[in-house]
Amino acid sequence: MPEALPTSPDDERLSGWYHTVELGDGLVSRGIYDHRPIIDRYGLPASLRGKTALDVGTWDGFWAFELERRGADRVVAIDIPSYEDFDWLPWIRESLGPLRAIRPHFDLAHAMRRSRVEHQICSVYDLSPDRVGTFDVVFCGSLLLHLQNPLSALVNIRSVTRELAIIETQFDPELDPWDRPWLAFGHRWAEERLGEAGVYWKLSTRALREMMEYAGFSSTQPLPPFSLPPAGPKVVSVIGYPASTESLRGRNT
């Protein structure tokens, strides 16, 4: 028989989450980050009625469920299957051994919220219209900093975006005042072995915008930077509007 769903806030299955997710009946997961106070800082349309939406790197599913809550007709959430499938450096991956799957928290939230979100196992590096289709609205939060090739990821996100994509990532506030496409690399101050944090890039807002434009977004709209609660890193959200295939060809002539 299926395991009974949690009914108490003290249930251990609500601990150890990345996202703080409202699960119904007053229950809330105990996440590292609580995006609820800053949910309107990302630039999501207030209503997604009549739209399709994709959440790239869904993890525990907070943003996929928010896309659903805003009325999207269909929401697909994609992610890798486990921590082992992160974009680790080779020597870090070899030392990890088997790691726990990501999806159980998503599945528990999905069941408790009686959600219709569709979950698919898919890396952003494998993302394409053939693999998942195309979507009116695409959301990607806090993923680029963990990728060895963020530009390749953005090209793939552009390929499945029909109307707009929202890209949020960690940024370096010391770089932003210069209004240059600059980045900071690495996370060595918090690592015993280089690469073990799986954090590679901090971008200036200008760098994220230009990277998105190189990936095929014809225009970008940056939003004011903010911090992830309760005391998380500084992040920036940029809305991208896709260029047509014809206009992309024109850029290269």
Task: Provide structural commentary.
The chain is α/β, with parallel strands linked by helices and 253 residues long. It has one domain (17-251): Rossmann fold, CATH 3.40.50.150. The protein has helices at residues 62-69, 90-96, 103-113, 129-132, 150-159, 205-214, 245-251; strands at residues 17-19, 22-24, 27-28, 31-33, 52-56, 74-79, 118-121, 135-141, 161-170, 183-185, 201-203, 217-222, 226-227, 234-242. The strands form four sheets. Strands 5, 6, 7, 8, 9, 12, 13 and 14 form an eight-stranded mixed β-sheet that branches. Strands 1-4 form a two-stranded parallel sheet. The longest helix is centred in the middle third of the chain and has 11 residues, at 103-113. The model has no long low-confidence stretch (mean pLDDT 93).
Number of strands: 14
Give the overall shape, derived from the CA principal axes.
globular
Tell me which CATH architecture applies here: 3-Layer(aba) Sandwich
CATH homologous superfamily grouping: Vaccinia Virus protein VP39
The oligomeric state of the chains shown is single chain
Predict the CATH topology.
Rossmann fold
Give the CATH level 1 class. Alpha Beta
How is the biggest beta sheet arranged?
8 strands, mixed
Strand content: 25-35%
One letter per element, helices H and strands E, the order comes to EEEEEHEHHEHEHEEEHEEEH
What is the average of the pLDDT values?
A: 93
Share of helical residues: 10-25%
Number of individual domains: 1
**What Rg is obtained from the alpha carbons, in whole angstroms?**
18 Å
Counting helices, strands and paired strands, the structural category is: alpha/beta
Distance between the termini: 62 Å
Q: Could you name the ranges where pLDDT drops below 50 across 5 or more consecutive residues?
A: none
Total DSSP helices: 7
